[in-house]
Amino acid sequence: MALPTLVTEHWYDLRDLSNLSREILEGADKILPHGIVYVLAALIGFVASFLIFVLPSQLIVGVYGERKLIGRMQSRYGPNRVGPFGLLQPIADAIKLMQKEALTPKGADRAVMYLAPIIFVAPAVLLFAVIPFGPKMILADINPALLYFLAVSSLPVLAAFMAGWSANNKYSLFGAMRIVAMSISYEVPLVLALLGVVLFTGTTSLQEMVLWQKHFDIWIVFLQPLALAIYFIAVSAELNRTPTDIAEAESEIVAGYLTEYSGMKWGLFYGMDIGYALAASAFAATVFLGGWSMFGLDKWVPPWMIIIGKTHLFYFVFIWTRGTLPRLRIDQLMAFAWKFMLPVALLNLVLVATERMLWVEQELDDSYLYIFAVVNIWAALGAIWAWSRFLGYRPERNPVRARLVNEAGGYVPVPEAAKGGK
Amino acid sequence: MTDAIKTEPFVLNIGPQHPSTHGVFRIKVTVDGEKVLDAEMVMGYLHRSMEKLAEERTYTQNIPFTDRTDYLSSMANNLGYCLAVEKLAGIGVPARGDAIRVIMAELQRLASHCMAVGAFTNDTGAWQTPVMWAFREREKILDIFEMTCGARLTCNYMRIGGVAFDLPAAFEPAVRKLLRELVPFIDEMEGLLVGNEIFLARTRGVGVLTPEQATNASLSGPLLRGSGIAWDLRKADPYCGYEQYDFDIPIGYQGDSFDRFIVRIEEMRQSIKIIKQALDGLPGGPHSTQVPLALRPPQGEAYARVEGSRGELGYYLVSDDGPSPYRFHIRAPSFINLSALKEMTVGGTVADAIVVLGSIDVVVGEIDR
To answer: So what's the ipTM on this one?
Structure first.
């Protein structure tokens, strides 16, 4: 597919910032000695990404926004002391963390314990390389971008396992074992869900997925609602966010694999957790929510603003679940992955394959996509309902109110009707 | 192949410093992976020797001590102790004093159950949100305590023969307003948690206690009622005129953590019902009888019990005709309820053990005294 020609090549066209940076670099190349331009490019990239992504996303939305929103959900204020509205709180936190001593417990494997946060950081940065921020604002427009994303996003599990294993603490070990078991289980439905998207669009390049959604004027979330639901649950399990944060489960195993970490070593884990969540949100926004395209609005609004907005919208759902849901037990999580999500993802795949075949072989009109969307939304609801019934889920059988008796006495037998099922 | 991999159980110390031990309390669990094989309780980190200290102080001086045993329901502790002294010395309480005591004890039960429900959901992993909501409502109840007796947590309000002060004029409208606000809060809290599939999955069938186990371990309070036994001292052995109020005993179905939760929620509704009746029929007259400051009850012994928020809260006093008790003993419901912890946790997972501990609703100040 050819790139749409909406964006001009002029440097002042802020809808695509790559024009500006190219102009600067070409100009600099004429004046400066040859090698310097690469250093300059790195600097520009660093400053620009800091200004348009890291600062608003990582610090303001990721740290401040999350704390503030959760504070409001919990009927308290959240940070409001440092700077105007507490906006400087993330910076104050970072300064505090850097000043703190990073302890290493006795008997810990020092090398592995030091290496773990570093290994944890690198993939979070790498993940953004394949996210398209605009028609040309993409660092590496590679064909297997989806596979690259999946491969790199499973690397931090290694770092988390190293952290838990090396710390010589039983709680850390619990966390490490849990995160490995959980990540392996949740990779399977995650990949199967994304396979449905790949089948429909016929590409694994993220840029082409965006262009596909732009071309047909439909977001994949409407065609693949089930895939988004599975992606969201699986990715929140991989990212260790509630309701699946069992590897850090505060009320059970203190802080899981992070128990023995302090100072900036902990800070790297904390900051990069947000980085991963943002990367996963950006990926979901690209694959499911149309990426930088917005039904023609991207002609007027800079596309990079659109995708950052969508990323934050998706990230808000992460914050929301964190503020509201209890945590599942590890066996329940595993059972959910293997017994519920995997079969439902397979069902979804069969449906998508059939639709794709009909669409291509019968050379159906583009408007059939809207029919598929309606069919798939109902199919998703039906599949969830039917499979949960099949697994024996009967919520109406269980009493949710206590029985009331007026006289004190002994044991009151439970009536047969109220005994309940699962 | 699996025979070749050597596995062995290991001991995990949950506590004394742990986010979910509700104080300074330690469980030594032997775990095989996630499965709990054995659980041993270690307590005494908060021991303050209250029962011994009480033998050196006069009967009136002991009332503030009882605040600090179960610090989440000081009114009920005050009440239990005062009832025991009154029984020992044969002192009567005027009708108004009894009604005020009932109102205060029920308000305290509401505050304590707010805390219990909130902390329990915190243990299931609902990260702080329900507990903050419950705290918001508990705060209003504590404000009422502050208005009445000047203290919020350690009230020290009951006196031998009645209560310390009469109710202020603003008390009744404030309580009625509070009750109006509490009813929708309880409904909301119940709806949000009972309708939450994850919460149900975490609590249903976890820490099941059969009625036999519950009675054999001499449990009381929501634990016993959660197992389906209709036992409430306010009905079975009424004190402070509880027999004149119309309320029900909520009981559970199979005795799991979820049943204890719904019993607590329903008890909050019943408490509101009792407070409304007590406010409507609040008698006039004195709030307290005159009792000599240096009280010397006749030689003998007395045991008085009240239905505290956590179960049967009993005070046993022996007098040798002196100004201070010869023996002072507290039957602490948390301590006795905790004895069933091992039966409930063994066989479950570590995560279940935390939920079970939360469902018992322990207060370590009361366990160690």
So the answer is: 0.81
